[in-house]
Design goal:
globular, 15 helices, six-stranded antiparallel sheet, alpha+beta, disordered C terminus, 568 residues
Length: 568
């Protein structure tokens, strides 16, 4: 162990200059994140932070790659300059020293540098674990190739030369991957790519270990080539979908007792107009409206997976699996807002305008006690969707619905304030410019990145958690009973800083207006005096499974879109 630590100390002393440059780049990336959160408006820094981030990421990757290669080549494994000739050290001991050094330099050090930034952004234990895993993953993608090339060469120049060949091989592999896996189902194709990537990483690490233990370059190269070929072959022949449990959620309830009285009702279904792509594919979208009643007042719900089947007496059956958004005014109750309906003069004006345009009068949404309305979207063959319009069919749907509890994460006066964070999400009002009955508001926000994005790509249920986990920003006035979405109309490109997404948004908030003598005028002159900025989030507290059946119904048709004539 003493000799292993001696080798590690020697490597660190020799690399201290290059290491200082790399640490400076990591610190600069962290400082850029703090500077973005401390700004007062999306000015020059926020507009060009993306370019600065790309530059720093490039320097980070380049310096990390060189450091990893030089760390290995401090003690060469090939060539005539290797110290093995005069100072024999076992390959296992040398490998242990290099692995320890790589773990400290390229694993622990970046995590420690990013830790203050993550804590400032409100990360808890779970978010810190995800952020650390993400950092280690990206570091591995740089360090493993550098270590592999450094163990098989005797100079940094040869490492860079072989790097070009490795990049060309990766590019060729990507082309083959697209050709081989394009015909596979989505889940199987993703599984094949995952298996191939994991196999290539294991092959590279096994080659490094073999080279340290045997120091036979050409045999190690042959080992690596055979491993790459085997990885491609195994991936191409891989038949299983390892993400099936995430893509096809089973109908399992969790903490369902709190929604024991909830039940599902069928409301109606319509066939939507087709766009050009749907016409070419021979498919058409169907939207089914379901209503859930009996849910407690403090809960909202979201559709995880809904399995639908239409059945004709003489067959065949049409099955469409979809998922839908639930709509409710529960957010108003959570915010403590009693929604104010339009006055008679304003409502009459709106109805007259709709009639003049030939439109239908709006169907007013039911009150909260009448339940949550879900729109379940799916696509089916166009011919069978057309049959649903002509011939009545029996309908059955079984769905798994998430139980969500909305809550107010932030509630602050509509004035510039200090940074606040909750559940790995942060927000700060940076500037408010009032312009009569409107106000221009600038907000900087942070959102967690890796955990949600990775799971979003793998499963519908996680997609819902992502959608509900991203908070809804509102400007409210409890005295007047108004809740307005903060709909930004200008934003800087979101930038990713150490697994945290930072984005600036600027939007105009207009006080509610009413019709007086045929003109829109502000309803309340002092509306902004009591306005507040609120952020509403939601957490998943359980799930329920519900079924609905309809013996006979006919799909409501919708007029087809007029598609543009194809270009000749």
């Amino acid at each position: 162990m003493k000799l292993t630590l001696h080798i590690l100390g020697k490597d660190l002393r020799r690399q201290r200059g290059r290491l200082a440059w790399w640490v400076a780049v990591l610190v600069a990336k962290t400082a850029l994140g703090f500077a973005l959160l401390a700004g007062d408006a999306p000015g020059y820094l926020a507009q060009h932070a993306g370019e600065a981030s790309i530059l720093l990421v490039g320097l980070d990757i380049g310096l990390c790659f060189l450091l990893a290669a030089l760390l290995v080549q401090e003690d060469l494994l090939v060539g005539t300059r290797a110290f093995w000739l005069t100072r024999p050290v076992s390959g296992a001991r040398l490998l242990a020293a290099k692995l320890l050094g790589a773990g400290l330099l390229f694993g622990a050090l970046p995590v420690l540098i990013w830790m203050p930034w993550w804590l400032h952004c409100g990360y808890g234990v779970r978010e810190l674990a995800w952020a650390g895993a993400e950092t280690l993953f990206w570091q591995m993608l740089v360090v493993v190739p550098a270590t592999l090339l450094a163990t098989l060469t005797d100079s940094i120049g040869r490492v860079l030369l072989w790097l070009l060949a490795l990049l060309a091989g990766v590019q060729a592999g990507l082309v083959l991957t697209v050709q081989w896996f394009s015909g596979a189902p989505t889940g199987v194709g993703a599984s094949q790519v995952t298996v191939m990537t994991a196999a290539l990483i294991v092959t590279a690490l096994a080659t490094v270990v073999r080279q340290y233990l045997s120091r036979q370059r050409w045999r190690s190269l042959g080992w690596f080539g055979a491993g790459c070929a085997a990885s491609f072959a195994v991936a191409a022949l891989w038949p299983w979908n390892i993400y099936a449990s995430l893509e096809q959620r089973d109908m399992r309830e969790e903490n369902a007792a709190q929604a024991a009285g909830a039940f599902l009702e069928f409301e109606d279904a319509i066939a939507l107009p087709q766009d050009r792509h749907e016409v070419e594919d021979g498919r058409q979208r169907v939207d089914v409206h379901l209503r859930m009643r009996g849910l407690s007042a403090d809960l909202a719900s979201a559709g995880d997976t809904v399995r639908q089947t239409w059945h004709w007496a003489g067959g065949p059956d049409l099955s469409i699996e979809g998922w839908g958004w639930g709509t409710t005014d529960i957010m108003s109750r959570v915010l403590g807002i009693s929604k104010r309906e339009p006055d008679a003069e304003t409502q009459r004006y709106l109805d007259d305008k709709r009639k003049a345009r030939g439109g239908l009068l709006p169907r007013h949404a039911p009150p909260a006690e009448d339940g949550l309305l879900f729109t379940v979207s799916g696509q089916g063959p166009r011919s069978m969707v057309a049959r649903l319009v002509r011939e009545p069919a029996a309908y059955r749907a079984t769905g798994r619905f998430l139980l969500l509890r909305p809550e107010v994460w932030f509630d602050k006066a509509l004035v510039p304030g200090s940074w606040q964070s909750h559940s790995a999400t942060g927000v700060r009002i940076t500037r408010v410019e009032q312009r009569g009955p409107a106000a221009r508001v600038s907000v900087v926000q942070t959102l967690r990145s890796l955990g949600n994005q990775a799971l979003y790509a793998l499963g519908t249920r996680r997609a819902w958690q992502l959608a509900m986990g991203e908070p809804m920003m509102r400007v409210i006035n409890r005295a007047h009973g108004d809740s307005l979405f903060f709909a930004w109309d200008a934003a800087c490109p979101p930038m990713r800083v150490g697994s945290v997404v930072v984005r600036w948004m600027t939007g105009e908030v207009k006080a509610p207006k009413v019709i007086r003598s045929g003109k829109w005028v502000p309803r309340d002159r002092d509306w902004f005096a009591g306005a507040r900025f609120a952020v509403v989030g939601a957490s998943e507290v359980g799930s329920i499974v519900r079924e609905v059946k309809v013996e006979e119904f006919t799909l409501s048709p919708v007029a087809e879109k007029k598609l543009p004539a194809p270009k000749r």
